[in-house]
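User: Structure please.
Assistant: Input sequence and predicted structure:
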Amino acid sequence: MSAIVQAIGLGKQVSSGGSKLTILHEVSFSASEGESVAIVGASGSGKSTLLGLLAGLDVPSSGTVMLGGQDIFLLDEDGRARLRAELAGFVFQSFQLMPALSALENVMLPLELKGVKDAKSRAMESLVAVGLADRSHHLPRHLSGGEQQRVALARAFVVQPKILFADEPTGNLDADTASQVIDLMFELNSLKGATLLLVTHDEVLARRCGRQFCLSGGKVVQG
């Protein structure tokens, strides 16, 4: 299968106390369509920074990323945003739901931003898929953590992404709820065929992926 995402010599440096701190150093790897890949490593190893670069949410100091065959850093910020809207879905540890919007409205939002006419019916179908049809009109503050993350999954998959970026998706959940969310994420992945790129400390989640690689000191040490 062809690579849907490819990191080529990615490096990231930031200024710290008058000197340069290297967060990532010459990271290269690729993920194919439909593949599931876990990015693991100790806290501070550069995992979340790498995910942000792969999604074009941050700009590297060196190297580049090919996303869907497009060099994303040849695009300006607006161009990268359009490409993300076309190709990607996101799930974060902190859920990132809009607090003033209902579960249904949160799932509708990315569709409305794309001008999809049947946004409400598609969003409702996505909530049904994650078992939250009866919670569709609840605000996030009236949902449990597990329910909020299921809304986030519904929102991520409703746009039928080719790639799902997930940053510690079970980090704020208890073990039982995390297990349910993991099962649901892989079930949706199987049905939709999206590539999964996951940053996680969760060994159970990492082992569910088809491949995993480890970052240490900003470098790939295994994979």
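Residues 175-192 form the longest helix (18 residues).
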